[in-house]
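Build the 3D complex.
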Amino acid sequence: MNGHTDILAIETSCDETAAAVVRDGTHVLSNSIYTQIGMHTVYGGVVPELASRKHIEKIDYVIKAALEEAGMSLEETDAVAVTYGPGLVGALLVGAAEAKAIAWAAGKPLIGVNHIEGHICANYIEHPELKPPYLGLVVSGGHTHLIIVRDYAEFEILGRTVDDAAGEAFDKVARAIGLGYPGGPKIDAAAKKGNASAITFPKAKVNHSEYDFSFSGLKSAVLNYLNHAAMMHEEICREDVAASFQRAVVEVLTEHTIRAAKEYGMSRIALAGGVSANSALRDAMRGAAVKEGFELFVPSPLYCTDNAAMIGAAAYHEYLRGTRSGWDLNAVPGLRLGER
Amino acid sequence: MKMIALDSSGLVASVAILEDDILRAEYTVDYKKTHSQTLLPMLDEIAKMILFDPKDADAVAVAAGPGSFTGLRIGSATAKGLCFALNKPLVEVPTLAALAYNLFGAEGLICPIMDARREQVYNGLYHFENGALVTDEDQRAIAVLDLAEELNAKRPDSVILLGDGVAVYKEQLDSLLKVPHLYAPANCSRQRAASVAAYGKVLFEQGKAVRGEEHAPVYLRKSQAEREREARERAAGSLRGES
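Done.
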């Protein structure tokens, strides 16, 4: 309402209660996050019922903080956006019900946003010059997708995981070697002190499927290695296991991505999702991109993990396309990339 | 005084708009469709029908628990969102007190029961005295057997039972109860936002409204993960105690 499009965005799909105000899809006026990680750590992972309970306790405070930080009243915003899937259904429902009621009472348009598309759009926050088409790699606790972003809301899926998501493998291996939850940052830190060539784990490839991934076999290989060592009463070096596992994951992600970029003639590659905060993946991708002459885009770690600014960025493009959600907007826990 | 009221604590989705002592509109649906798809469209529809501008609301009342965890949160998040946008207070109405208010002025003991699974019901005991709702037993989760025993011990002249627990436990209650008891008819046997509104107005006038951000539903039960964790810790504690 000031020549700009200012969107209030809300995200509660997993264990972060988040709200943001984003201007014109790129300028983050505020980015407020309440993280529940501490509460879930004692359970070794996210407990859906507890996540939902915490969301409803915190959501108003987080939204209020986002508006205050942006120096803006609700009336001054142009639309309310909310993640409606994929994610934990009970958690999604809190954000969706809250956002719908706010939009209805304030007389603002409502825009339901796909969480995975939000991750991809996180790239536009720091790199407004990035425009489709480009190759995207989305890697998080729930998703592993190699895609071509044809247009802002048009995606062609080249490959995906056939079993565990990349981030899930990090969590499971971290638990197995006693690093705890959340696995991603813990393995990243431990791997820095380990030897990535110490143990040879299989790569997470799928036979006869060029761009798909499989992390379950790699995870089993790590567990077998640990069981074998335990049986032989051998000490294991957690740092070496972490580093060797991480290398196997990073190599397959990087190889697939570079090969796809070449095959499909893409000059730009963008990473997205929580696992793209992993330092080894960022380094390997940067190295490969420089070597092969690709332009690489990676969001700051803050925009890789779940946040509402990315939802605001995605909502902006939906807003321009005329997407408006109804008051019957429901949570869709299994919402797929590109699905409306 | 204008009030929006919501109840999505159980199988019923219900919305109402109250103006002073007049129920301007109420929309109640007891069907399997999910509350997140029905509740706000229903409110939108009645608001349009009576040309109600949400900005004219003085407060929002919500059935604040107990009930289905997810259902409660849909109602609570909706109420919180309304209060946030309108900058108006929220009235937390105990679900079972609102159910009892369906039977305003009735003689005898009022005993709403909601199916809480695991052989339990959510229940409170109430009666009316000079036009006021009096709570005899605060809302709780209680085994059906224990509730029947408690009612028999109280020996009231009559008990009226209502709520979605009736459909599940009627036979069992008929055989267990040794006191005269009745079951409420369909017009007042389940959650109604009109009752949330009417009792919410009483609470509002007693100064019991809260700020929306402070509100979270009352579950009366811990999550399964918490219960299991506590059981493990108790087991570990008793093992340590023995050694």
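Residues 6-120+304-320 of chain A form a domain with the Nucleotidyltransferase; domain 5 fold (CATH 3.30.420.40).
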